[in-house]
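User: Here's a chain of 305 residues. Predict its fold as tokens.
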Amino acid sequence: MSEKLQLHIIGCGSARPTKQSNQTSQILTQRGKQYMIDCGEGTQFQLRRQNMHINRMNHIFISHLHGDHFFGLIGLISTLGMLGRTAELCIHAMPEIEKLLNEMIKFCCQGMTYEIRFCPINPYKHELIYEDRTMEVYTIPLKHRVPCCGFLFKEKENQPHLIKDMIDFYKIPIAELAKIKNGADYITPDGEIVANNRLTTPADPIKSYAYCSDTAYSEKIIPIIEGVDCLYHEATFMKADEPRARLTCHSTTEHAATIAKLAQVKQLIIGHYSARYDEYESLLNEAKAIFPNTLLAIDGKDFEI
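Assistant: Prediction complete.
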């Protein structure tokens, strides 16, 4: 099973889907676990087109209640029920989503085979909203026309790797392996002390991913996302359309690149493109002029973080 943190773009468009970009949705995968971020209209259709299986997806994070970020939820919920899903599905979103979805679920999804748990979040606070054995997820308050937040995914500290040849050489019992991975030396039956660094190699470096869509330019997020391995920041408009960006509380390519530069992130992915643009290379070029390590989100594309 892959130990890498991987991002899959399901859709990278904005309010109106186009022939080249569906509405916003992503899957972040870590050690086989899948986290969905936003679920715009047509998400389940995109998943089929892109041959994506979501049998290990138990958590969905919704940034805000504009349709292009959550209209795909009810269809996905219904289909998962028809497929006989039994595992609980947790939806992390604004408190209002529970009332909106429950009415549709009661009307459209009778005989559900699994439970849906709503986990309300406060979009105005930067706080831990979810954690498991290997991952933490924090909210990132954003500046939009409605309550909106991004999400910061941070891996927890990894354990060092055991050197199999050394474990076999000293015939170390299985019961001792957890202690060694936690830093202990090994004492042989003859009393010899085998230093931990002879039995292990350093742990893999932890990775972090920040998702910021939708938002106007805001330097308040910089302390939260500073130094992340990968930042996804909306770039709905080009610089020439900055008045439109201000009016709609969105960002331009230059805004996204400037945030990435100030926060000293390692990589920037831009997306959430306005339907007015027929091609995206011009947006990429504007962003790269400020932050060279910028990539384009494209429907169906995978990124290794």
